[in-house]
Amino acid sequence: MLNDTAKGLKHVYQLSHPSQEDLIYDLFKCPKKPDEASLGKLLSVLRSFGIREDDPRLKHTIEKMREYELQSVDDSDTKHCLLNKDQFRECIRPSINLIAQALRNELIIPSWGEFIAKIGEMFHKCSELPEGKVAESTPQLARADPNKWGISICTIDGQRINLGDARVPFCFQSISKAFNYAIASSDLGADFVHTHVGHEPSGRLCNEICLNANGKPHNPLINTGAIVVTSMLKMGCKMADRYGFVCFLVIIRM
Known about the structure:
By secondary structure, this protein is mainly alpha-helical. 48% of the residues lie in helices and 6% in strands. It has twelve helices and four strands. The chain has a two-stranded antiparallel sheet with strand order 1-2. A two-stranded antiparallel sheet has the order 3-4.
């Protein structure tokens, strides 16, 4: 009886409290066609919060949108694609948490427009500075074009902005250490990683071959620690597959 009562109360609650999908549908209903909602407006609003259409978390939503676009006899443009309630809900359901978080203005940088305006201002000011020269510590760095200038930012909530020559490939150098550390920690757990690598600063040069008092590299972001962390990537795979995985990481980072 208690279970039946709980189910009944839940049903009443659901009837009186619309779902997130319903609320979002109502937000983007077309004034002239109240039985349909605009996909383009939703994507435009998400873009204003820094969430772009090529965000991997929107993949299934965008794919479903494309399906309905192809079925549409009126338009093949996402900006003008209108869907009924069931279609709209089906599209946004795979990405509902991200969409709802953005529409509630709960992303890590809420005033995204102001933020990118400031970044753009700094970008243009710095582009006028001719001083300095490219690093020559390695041949890859020495070959870099000093006239290339770009900025890419991705927040912890996936808000992104690219300016200038942001798509020009460049040598990652030690930036790769942070990515490898993140991958190893995600795959194996931070506890396992730190049984072999410390997490304190060494107080020495990053390329110095040394260990801490416990016989471990001081941290994952100096050369000794990075070598150990890299050895943890895909440990259960054959050496050729591990090498292929690292090469794949290089490609996607470009």
